[in-house]
Amino acid sequence: MKTLVIKCGGSIIDELSDAFFESIKELQSRGWQMVFVHGGGPDINAMLEQSNITPIFENGLRKTTTEVMEIVELMLAGKSNRSLVHKLESHDIKAIGLNGSDGKMLIGSYINESALGAVGEIEQVDTDLLEMILQKGICPVLTPISITESGQKLNVNADMAAGAVAKALGAQMCLFVTDVKGVLKEGSLLSQLTATETKEMIKEGTIYGGMIPKVTTALSVLEKSIPEVMIVSGKSCFYENNDFIGTKFVTQEGVYQ
Ligand SMILES: Nc1ncnc2c1ncn2[C@@H]1O[C@H](COP(=O)(O)OP(=O)(O)O)[C@@H](O)[C@H]1O
Ligand SMILES: CC(=O)N[C@@H](CCC(=O)OP(=O)(O)O)C(=O)O
């Protein structure tokens, strides 16, 4: 079995198309097992707004006070996770939802507590638990919430969480599913990108906002020897005629070594 980690952005969960699920099923029939990690940024923002709290981001990461963390967990575990699991199940894809912090599956540490509050990065992943679920033919669906060794919950950017899970599992592929076809330049899809090109696009502002943690994680995953790393759209079919449609990250030479 080949392992594929799929990150589903909060921007797309509610808009995932039937064609997207057809692509998932096609890949399953070709021997891929899948772990999903999802975001939920727009849902979190909407609930913060209802609570009269203004979302604050620094370099794409949400400043997370104790009050914000409660809403983050409520929306990720109670809404986004439920919604993705339900959609997978209704397309006959067996799935089980888990909060990343359950059973100390995703162990994390603070990035910069004084500046960002309870925002973390993942240090360790309990791959045994994930593999047990995969062996049963079920797709684990994880929130990106992690927990410190001493038991504090941390809010982790979902792109970064997916990258950590892919590395820990030694996945053959990591896909970032979002609301655009891939990385765009002047409206056109870039079918492949090197690290140098990506960094240049960030510097010139062609890649901005939520696309920054996505491409940065994609490059770090590629460096960790995961052969296939892509950004694809959840609005349409992303796998056709044995080929993936989107932006593929490649080493400078153009091929993965
Ligand atoms: N060069 C780019 N190409 C495509 N999208 C980009 C680019 N730079 C920034 N973006 C923005 O990034 C968004 C995807 O990131 P984000 O909204 O955080 O999605 P997700 O919830 O899937 O993580 C796109 O909808 C687009 O507005
Ligand atoms: C630390 C941090 O920023 N965490 C993110 C977690 C959710 C997420 O990443 O959702 P998307 O994939 O939809 O952006 C947040 O609070 O929005």
From TrEMBL:
Q: Which Gene3D superfamilies match?
A: Acetylglutamate kinase-like (3.40.1160.10)
What protein family is recorded? Belongs to the acetylglutamate kinase family. ArgB subfamily.
What does this gene product do? Catalyzes the ATP-dependent phosphorylation of N-acetyl-L-glutamate.
The gene coding this protein: argB
Protein's UniProt name: Acetylglutamate kinase
Q: Which reaction does it catalyse?
A: N-acetyl-L-glutamate + ATP = N-acetyl-L-glutamyl 5-phosphate + ADP
Q: Name one GO cellular component term.
A: cytoplasm
Record's keyword annotation contains Ribosomal protein: no
Where are the residues marked Transition state stabilizer as a site?
K7, K214
Recorded hits in HAMAP family, A to Z, give: ArgB (MF_00082)
> PANTHER family recorded for this chain?
N-ACETYLGLUTAMATE SYNTHASE, N-ACETYLGLUTAMATE SYNTHASE, MITOCHONDRIAL
GO biological process terms on file: L-arginine biosynthetic process via ornithine
- Record keywords: Amino-acid biosynthesis, Arginine biosynthesis, ATP-binding, Cytoplasm, Kinase, Nucleotide-binding, Transferase
- Organism from which the protein derives: Peribacillus loiseleuriae
InterPro entries, sorted: AceGlu_kinase-like_sf, AcgluKinase_fam, ArgB, Asp/Glu/Uridylate_kinase
Q: In which pathway does it act?
A: Amino-acid biosynthesis; L-arginine biosynthesis; N(2)-acetyl-L-ornithine from L-glutamate: step 2/4
**Top-rank lineage group of the source organism:** Bacteria
- Chain sites annotated for binding substrate: G40, G41, R62, N155
